[in-house]
Predict the structure.
Amino acid sequence: MDSGRWRTSAALAITAWWSIVSVAGCSAAARQKIVNLFFDGVNTTPNPPTQRLRKDLQHELEQLKRQAEDDRTEIERLRRQAAGTPETSEASSLPVEGVHTWEEAAALLPKDAGGHVDWDAALASGAIAPRATRSPQQTAPAVFDLDVELATPGRRIFRAGFSHAGHTRWVECQSCHPGLFPLGRQTARPAVTMAAIARRQGCGACHGPVAFGTANACARCHPALPDRIDWQPREAPRVPLERLHRWEEAQLMLPASDGSPEWTKALVERRIAPRAGMDPDTSALPIFASDVVRVPEGMEELTVVFPHAPHAAWLTCESCHPHPFQMKAGATPMSMDQVTNGELCGRWHGSVSFPVSACARCHPAMEVSP
């Protein structure tokens, strides 16, 4: 009898121990379901939201409140319009808010050296007074005063400065983030390049259509560059081509092949005279005269020859190394698909130099004898 009770007690103890271990290894939701299955009257109230969830819900609630306020304002405007009642708005003493065309407004706004409307100066002088929303009662969000500097290694003269304060005085964070510029340390960010801006990407979404463009306002973003209006060359032109002002004129003086300028020949014939830097006193670096030969496996007829000399004659090493080409033989895989897609050599060849269709320029064995 004692032996039977002992076995029963041991079985119950093992069962209880196994149940506790099993429940402990489950998630909070699973444990709640298991406990509810065996016991009545257990509190089924879910866990309170986390701090992150509460913040997200609060942010969403604030957005809904703002949207509701905007909707009420719009409904009231439509109601007055339907009733034939003239709209009323807050009084304004700003001359620019009393005009009706962009030409009239632009004439009242300050300009930069390039003749573009200087919105920062307009804000600072009080010529414009942006509203937080269409509702006069809505308060403006706090200005985010943070300057961001973008610089390419070895090209400090082209470093660009971005002022959050000048933008957040009248543009919401959501205007740029995360659509144009994703946030987060681990988030992949699109490269900010002049080519991307010209395609209306990144900064180009606004600069060009509604703010100063990139054609002749370089100093607005690149403070180290001279302003185009006031800048004068510090030395006389070295070659006749430097006296020209338009690319169409320069093209006529450059040797060409395959429909593109023959830059190597232009260097040899002294049609162009590249500088070591914007400062005439900058000393030129020694030219790295080394040819790189790459032979695709089993395809000797497609051997590629890359001459450093004509490239180093007017480009710095940092233009190509370590990005996109690592400083180690064979470390950067290459393919024609990459080049034709604008990667590696394709970043330049096809846009500012001969296209990839000029096969014999890089693959000497493919040259056709006349």
